[in-house]
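Researcher: Here's the sequence for the chain we discussed earlier.
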Amino acid sequence: MDKAEQSLASAESHQEGASVSPTEREERPAGGREFLQRRQGGDTGQIGLAPKEAAAALDELRRLCASPTAEAQALDGLVGLLREAGYREEMTRVLVEALSRPEVNPHVGALWMHRFVTSHSWNRSYPKAMDDLCQRGEAGRQAVITFLEHTGRKGRSKLVRQAVRKHGEWLREHPQGRSVAARALLDAGCYGKVLHWTRNWRRTLEPDLQGLHCRASALRARGKCRQAREVAQFALSRPGASEQFPVLNLWCAVEEALAGDTEAAWSHFKRIKPAGWDEDALSLYYLTRGVIRVQQAERASRKEAFRSASRRIEDWFHGGRIYRRGFLVRRYYRRCLWRMAMDSGRWTRGFWAAWRSADAWLVLAALLVIPPLQLLMPTYLFRFFRRRHARSAR
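Model: Thanks. This is the structure I predict for it:
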């Protein structure tokens, strides 16, 4: 832990906050736990800590770090209190000292890594000290898990791949590590790695809803939406999946509707509550709703149903340029509008949707082989290659 301690020590020069003097350390009072309970119990108006209060909090933190059975919530509370009061350096040294001892609370590894990756001096390189710590038990594994969570959210694909490659053996067997690794790879955009990591999904991921969701997301990002539906349906057969990942119902509903199975699509769609979803997921929600409404309408009134549904969809997109949206939104816009157009007998609107989305190789081929349409090739190529990245509704 010497290298890690040196790295964090250099980080403290960038942080604000007072230090506890040697004289004040000699006057540390007992009863750190009672002090924390009093602070958490309502005395929160004061942001700073008096030196004696800080000394008591540090003593209590040291005691909790040395206890393998101490609750993570208590450790988080003390660390947060000391950090906000400006005692980052003292708090960090307590964590590093605890990790050098034989007995340590596993959550200390997570706290240390969070402190490490959020410090100003971290040069975004792989922390080799983490590998050494990992050989000593669960505290090191919690450090790796925290590292994956942070680097995944930040999209640092190289660091995520390196960590998974070095620690993949135990991550697969760890109750928390397997799904955390899958999520980190997904967040970092390593879709192929996600599919490889979850390749035995029927056998190894059956109880792991997070892993199943990550696999379905990666398949959708690769354009393999029908395979993603199979994974989503499997996940939804597990208890609690619909509540934890309601977007799985949406993915199943849209594919069922596009396949013409309106009843199955409606069965999934009516369970959806799109609260707190991002813009791309809501776009898919309104597109799916439009397809189902056209299919549910009487055959004689489907043209009117299509007109009404397409108007609502355009209102959602604010009449904007669809080709500027993410890859998946463009693809589903074309597929859903095409299906509604075919179901209502207005097939020309389907071709117009394919032109607006600018995501289909088939349209590109048609422009290439039909001479009168070749004049449109530069415009379509510009749209086709614009923002061709995938965003998954997570």
